């Protein structure tokens, strides 16, 4: 992949003009002004005035990006006791939420965890159907309810059942209709209340699924979902296309939320652990 940073460099002496260009390129790549300025400062501190090849420069930028990403790279650990670990999955419709739930379930099952899914997005009939198909494909039990039903009732039943049969992880789909923030907020609050009654620690994770192709919009989604649902971690999907996920650097800088995994395709095996060094090299 040709670097936006490298291709915008005319001069290879690391002077103010070059640093300005690097900073601009980083901002254009969705890293945000704060991370871009931080990287610029670091480069200046370490190499100002030196003559540097494009390749060295790309590596230096990647190192600085990785330094920002490394602290937020955290695998999703299944440690809840008592079981199940309740994982709420949130995100706007189309972000890849349903697919990510299936991939995550599959991933955990490959590690020998018992997984159950719960179809908490009762607002979209298609969402329930879609999740059922995925559950069948990965061989996980699923708790569903009628379209338009109460998601918190499904979650209640799911936790009870998961507890009975000793499920390790219960992954809960939720509605992603940000158009009606109030309703979504109430719905998620109700789910939390029900969960809290069954297990004060639940939900153990609230994972926000972000679509890499939405660029900077990811930041406003984090902001809104933090308020609506209390996000504990991020998964970014669609990093297999042209989007390179520069916004993850802005997110790491601004929010410091753990990044657990990335989606790199539409099949079950297309969820990867978040590797900060690899992603940094792609962004740079
Ligand atoms: P939801 O509305 O948020 O539940 O989104 P879906 O899970 O239905 O996904 C929306 C579309 O994005 C579907 O066509 C998925 O196959 C696709 N998708 C999800 N994750 C990825 C990914 O990591 N890469 C690519 N290329 N497509 C993805």
Automatic annotation (TrEMBL):
Gene3D superfamilies documented for this protein: P-loop containing nucleotide triphosphate hydrolases, Signal recognition particle SRP54, nucleotide-binding domain
Keyword Membrane: yes
The organism's place on the tree of life at top rank: Bacteria
EC assignment: 3.6.5.4
Topology relative to the membrane: Peripheral membrane protein
Location relative to the cell: Cell inner membrane; Cell membrane; Cytoplasm
Subunit structure: Part of the signal recognition particle protein translocation system, which is composed of SRP and FtsY. SRP is a ribonucleoprotein composed of Ffh and a 4.5S RNA molecule.
Function description: Involved in targeting and insertion of nascent membrane proteins into the cytoplasmic membrane. Acts as a receptor for the complex formed by the signal recognition particle (SRP) and the ribosome-nascent chain (RNC). Interaction with SRP-RNC leads to the transfer of the RNC complex to the Sec translocase for insertion into the membrane, the hydrolysis of GTP by both Ffh and FtsY, and the dissociation of the SRP-FtsY complex into the individual components.
Name the UniProt record assigns to this protein: Signal recognition particle receptor FtsY
The encoding gene: ftsY
């Amino acid at each position: 992949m040709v670097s936006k940073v490298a291709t915008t460099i005319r001069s290879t002496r690391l002077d103010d003009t070059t640093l300005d260009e690097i900073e601009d390129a980083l901002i254009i790549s969705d890293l945000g002004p704060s991370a871009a300025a931080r990287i610029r400062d670091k480069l200046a501190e370490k190499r100002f005035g030196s003559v540097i090849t494009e390749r060295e420069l790309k590596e230096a930028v990647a190192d600085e990006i990785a330094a920002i990403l490394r602290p937020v790279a955290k695998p999703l650990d299944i440690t809840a006791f008592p079981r199940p670990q309740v994982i709420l999955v949130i995100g706007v419709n189309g972000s890849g939420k349903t697919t990510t739930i299936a991939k995550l379930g599959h991933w955990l099952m490959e590690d020998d965890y018992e997984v159950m899914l719960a179809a908490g997005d009762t607002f979209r009939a298609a969402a329930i159907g879609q999740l059922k198909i995925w559950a069948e494909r990965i061989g996980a039990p699923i708790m569903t309810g009628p379209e338009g039903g109460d998601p918190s009732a499904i979650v209640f039943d799911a936790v009870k059942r998961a507890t009975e049969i000793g499920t390790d992880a219960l992954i809960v789909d939720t509605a992603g209709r940000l158009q009606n923030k109030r309703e979504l907020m109430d719905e998620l609050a109700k789910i939390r209340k029900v969960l809290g009654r069954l297990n004060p620690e639940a939900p153990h994770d609230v994972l926000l699924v972000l679509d890499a192709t939405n660029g900077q919009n990811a930041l406003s989604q984090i902001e809104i979902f933090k308020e609506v649902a209390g996000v504990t971690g991020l998964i970014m999907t669609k990093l297999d296309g042209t989007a390179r996920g520069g916004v993850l650097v802005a997110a790491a800088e601004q929010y410091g939320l753990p990044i657990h995994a990335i989606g790199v395709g539409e099949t079950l095996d297309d969820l990867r652990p978040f590797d900060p060094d690899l992603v940094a090299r792609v962004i740079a």
